[in-house]
Amino acid sequence: MPGPILLALALMAGQDAPSKTWTVPRTPDGHPDLSGTYDTATLTPLERPAQFGDKLFLTAEEAAAIEKEELNLSEDLARPSDPEREAPPVGGDGSPGPYGNVGGYNFFWIDRGTEVFELDGRRRTSIIVDPQNGQLPPLTLEASKRAAVRRALYKENAGENTGEAWWVEIEGPGPYDDPEQRPLGERCLLGFGSTSGPPSLPVLYNNLKRIVQTRDYVVILVEMVHDARIIPLHREHAPKEIQKWMGDSVGHWEGDTLVVDTTNFGKTPALYSASENLHVVERFTRIAEDTILYQFTVEDPTVWTKPWSGEYPWVSTDAPLYEYACHEANYSFGGILRGARLLEAEAAERRK
Amino acid sequence: MVEGQANAYRAPRASDGHPDLNGIWQALNTANYDLETHMARAAMALREGPYGPLPAADVLPLGAVGAVPGGLSVVEGGAIPYRPEALAKKKENQENWLTRDPEIHCYLPGVPRATYLPYPFQIFQSENGILITYEYAGAVRDVYLNDPGPPPVESWMGQSVGRWEGETLVVEVTGLNDRTWFDRSGNFHSAQLRVVERYTRVAPDHLLYEATLEDPEVFTRPWTIRMPLYRRVEPGAQLFDFKCVEFVEELMYGQYRRRPIAR
Lengths: 352, 263
Hints:
Chain A is an alpha+beta fold and 352 residues long. Chain A has helices at 3-21, 60-77, 141-160, 184-187, 331-351; strands at 36-39, 118-119, 122-123, 128-130, 208-213, 217-222, 227-232, 248-254, 257-263, 279-288, 291-299, 308-316. The longest helix of chain A is centred in the last third of the chain and has 21 residues, at 331-351. In chain B, the strands form two sheets. A nine-stranded mixed beta barrel of chain B has the order 1-4-5-6-7-8-9-10-11. A two-stranded antiparallel sheet of chain B has the order 2-3.
């Protein structure tokens, strides 16, 4: 074959190969095959950082800067500790990381991805696409009151870790009085950060999802905490009196997109701030051999003043899911409560 | 007999061309109380009474609800072939059931106990994967259809690798830890346990379940349990949430409340 024709064919193949040659794989019943194992980690946050304003897309430089920052941080935190270092001061030295307070995980355990995500060849500033500013819509009056109470009790004060039972000085319950007050992730009832969903959001680690699809069901196995979302495809919602931790999901196909509607949540869904009135619609579309486009709309009129929507890709991976046996080794949960009792006893002693 | 039906019946095929095991299944026996033959008794935890065993004080208020129904052994040949020292430990486990049985603490059940706990489980079978989800504790198993090699770590539910032998799904389970039990009677194993399960659809609404257990540290030879599993046929049958972690918080952490509730 003459040289120029070969070159022209090669160019055509190079340009058009992705859209023309790939067809969505299908199951024997003709629907797109969503099955596989997916990594949902991304450096793109749910809400858009303020500096990007209404901008949905990142420039190549902005994306590179975010990825570089994460790389630098991980390299920094992966450096061996100085064996000669002093013990941290009582209560921590205030810095982020294990020296700052009693400490959580070191960086070895963190796995939130290395890249911002890209759709249609453009990198994104946020998962939220609606509202346009990429922020959660304002809370209702009722919900903002609840949030203020929660912030006062759990975030601002508890985050300080003064090493003292500061809550004995305030009226009402303290943050560590009872196991039921603690977050679902701490109690090992669901993974933190709405990793189970719906909507399913990327979190600090264990972001794998395994999808198995039969004629009648799509099941999403969520790595943390080994939660299987069983989505029947030919069924009405469960009656109202049936409430489920991850809600009652029913799915149907709209063309090549799996649409999953979820209601019947309990009082505390995985999604932060949401109530039992939460309603989530998710759309799963396989857009490439290795990618599912995951889109969702969240509606809870008792919490947010209007619905909000987001999207990000689930990218297939060869990595296996590990068993996230959370409750079975949740030694620190009893420790958290016992520690609070100890601090209260010390406070009582001081007051004598 | 379920076994007798196996030859005559040909199961419908699933989308992967193999016998269709999709569905919600449940055991209907007393294996979770005791794999071996046992007579009905007053309670799981007993103490001596003037005329024979009585319910232990901790379980006394449950009355007949806390009693144990009798049942035949599901073990081929009747008895579990314990090594002598392991049998002593089994008995000790049984005497300390109330504090030692992992089911009481809502821990993941392991294999094969997950199968015959008194809760349904669901099999999802496709050409690209098989999942088994259990109502109890939200336990799950991803049955690999390609062997990934030895399990990288021990786990509560182990690593499952499945293959088809004719009409039977054979699942080899390795990498199990030593924390799970087989029943409420203290029957146990070590981390050497290896389980080979066989699932055969022998009738429209029955599976035959067989599991061969090998653990040279605890047993003198491999042994096999066998039982029918029944399809949950009622309309709308589904797995409910049974996140029992929530239900054991008072038991496990109640003493650490700021204001403990009287017990």
